[in-house]
Design goal:
- The structure is a homohexamer.
- By secondary structure, chain A is mainly beta.
- The first copy, chain A, is about 10% helix and about 55% strand.
- The first copy, chain A, contains 1 helix and 5 strands.
């Protein structure tokens, strides 16, 4: 199975926080940088996300910007 | 100056490709991972992006997904 | 493998059009509705997308709007 | 009135859930598939969204991905 | 007809540029600021967009960031 | 420092509302129009956003749509 979204960053979940509707997932990716993803609470439950999980962060190329 | 977008990944531009309207910027971020950003041609020109540039990739937290 | 993106619509590729950087993929989903996805040319090539392919259209919940 | 967003999927609201800031709207689109949209609480109130409403789900083409 | 997308900025089209797949629409909104929208070529054709047109720019609230 | 995101609209914060995870920031931009941005609670705290602040609203061009 392949996804058109070009960016898949490998990392480990550092922290998960949820409320009724939304969830915040902090991922430490390779190279000592962190990525915060806001996803639905449903997705947090469905993927059973918890600290320590090995995950990929998926970002569509059209959603990324450049700062210089 | 601060930006609400939570994710700023440090890296170096590996390649830039443009057509009349759009541009593709490939960034090697720390940890030997690459991120592809699709931005406007206008932005490529305005930031004078070229291989070797030190940049940050900016991703809004609501645009990031998790794969597990 | 599971993706946090909540919406995966099953369908078949009706048409693919590409230029150097971008690609347009038209998918006929169940229920006789079509979805157009703009993805990178790289992704079209990587997934070898062509008319007739069985695919899922992935849409993050925060990217969907409602019209009433 | 026309919208540039290419994807408008016809369906009926199955469920609405809100907290102070956000709302989750689950829509059953034609073909027995469901779409979840995360919108603002303000929008849920403004459109007076409730189960049974006939709605269109709007997705910009650049926000759709393909899985194969 | 109402749209959940919270931000509709009134303005006039200043310029339209297209290639085979994509289109760039520059809109001068009230208050002497301009907004650039990248949409599909199909949408430019469907809405028959041209300089001088009175339009609204639609931005979903989750797509807006803040710089301070 | 420059950002590839093409749209930066100048304005003043009218209101800020937060819950545990998310924040809603209403900005009055030049020309008597308002923009609502949904960002993370972390970003609201980090930027110390409050009514009266002078800010720019940042919108990536690929996130803007046109209504005509």
């Amino acid at each position: 199975m392949k996804i058109s979204g070009r960016n898949q960053l490998k990392g480990f979940v550092k922290a998960v926080q949820t409320d009724d509707l939304m969830g915040k997932v902090v991922v430490e990716i390779q190279g000592d940088q962190t990525v915060t993803a806001i996803i639905t609470r449903d997705a947090v439950d469905d993927l059973q996300l918890k600290a320590g999980d090995q995950v990929n962060v998926l970002v569509k190329a059209t959603s990324a910007m450049i700062i210089k």
